[in-house]
Amino acid sequence: MSTSEFDIIFRGDIVFGHQLTEVKLKLQQLFKVDAAKVDALFTGRPVPLKRKLDEATAHKYREVLLKAGAQVEICPSDSSPATAAPKPAPVRPAAPAPVNHPAATAAITPVTPIAPVWSIAPAGADLLPANQRPAAAAPVAVDLSGLSLRAQSGNLLDASEVAPTPVATVAVPDLVVAEAGATLSDEDHLPLPLVEIELEYWDIAEAGADLLRDDERPLVVPVAVGPVDFGLAPAGSDLGQLKPQVKPLNPDISGLQLVDPS
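and the corresponding structure tokens:
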């Protein structure tokens, strides 16, 4: 068995599926301390709960704390809690068989958290020591022989470097301005064909005269109507129209009787 020593580190994480209030209550019962001391463990900083344990005892403590809902880590004692390995993602431990562990009843005395010694570096200081800085990259030789400086104002290109602007060719016809009121393009007008109308047979008819001759009127054949045998029915007569099918009512009058008014 390994003779290395281990520490139990707690960062304030709880096992998935447990409630924070229940975990704090169980830790009070395990540590036999008040609520204020248990709340001091949930700061997010690594807190060593037990130090200098052998590997078997460290795993027993871890199993008890996991059962209580506290996510803890086992780290070698020679490593500081502040530089311990990154915490794993919270996982649900397998439910152990009901065994009476001696660590479950032992009084666990929480160790005072060790606050890291931090300071603020001056502005512009290198945060890495010299042995941790990456090797300086080899300087790149840039050929600047083809570059030159020119005055701030003006064009950066020489006249020989400026491409000439192409001149657009515009066809301008030989046009003149006509005088006001002049007829434009008389020579370009096409002659319109004249409609020949013979007016010698035309005349103006008198008002109300028939404009058609007898031979121009359409022939209208009169409709032959035979003798009619119909007349007017008296008011209210039945003309044989279709009547709605109304079911007659048969009221029960067995309970009615006539009474002599005298």
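(Above: one complete record from the training split.) Residues 82-107 have pLDDT under 50 and may be disordered.
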